[in-house]
Amino acid sequence: MKPHIALTLACAIAAISFGCDGGAQDSGTITLGNRAPEFSLKSLEGATVTSGSLEGDIVVLNFWATWCGPCLNEIPELKEVAASSKARVVGIALDEQGLKAVKPFADRYGLNYTILLGDQELFQRFHGFGIPYTLVLDRSQRVVKIYRGPTTKKLLEQDLIAIS
Question: Mutual orientation of helices 153-163 and 69-84 as an angle, nearest 10°?
């Protein structure tokens, strides 16, 4: 096999296994027990949502993009969590085309949770390097669980039970 084909194949397998942008190790910069970084973002409906407005809610905060295969596979899990739990599911889309790409996608897939429009600057403040990337936050917005790569409804429900 030619070297460039082998490298492409290895990258594809890593993306499928660990999420888009590879499966690098956790840098440890977002740590359990610390408050999540503050933000102020627009929703698909044009409303401004701030991190402060989420205080008092248990939050599943999911960074994703419309072009990310593992993110697409995770969406049904997040939709089920949003429909069956008292936690607030918030997706932060990282598409460069913003609303133009994300709104039709959200409509097509019937996303039943809050979608906000993020960017790389915000993602870096959350110390993200690959998507999907999910944080479970308690009512005071402290990080109680970190998922670098896809997660499932079952895992999220276990987390939510533990902090309810």
Answer: 40
The amino acid present at 16, given as its one-letter code, is I
**What is the CATH class of 3-163?**
alpha beta
Task: Give alpha helix (H) positions in 22-86.
Answer: 69-84
* Distance between CA atoms of residues 15 and 23, nearest Å: 7
Beta strand 59-64 with 133-137: parallel, antiparallel or unpaired? antiparallel
Query: From residue 46, how far is each of 13, 122, 139 by CA, in Å?
Result: 37, 18, 25
Task: Specify the pTM.
Answer: 0.82
CA distance 20 to 29: 20
Domain boundaries, the chain: 3-163
> How confident is the model at residue 137, as a pLDDT?
97
CA atoms in the 13 A half-sphere facing the CB of 85: 25
Range name among 19-23, 57-61, 156-160 with the lowest pLDDT average: 19-23
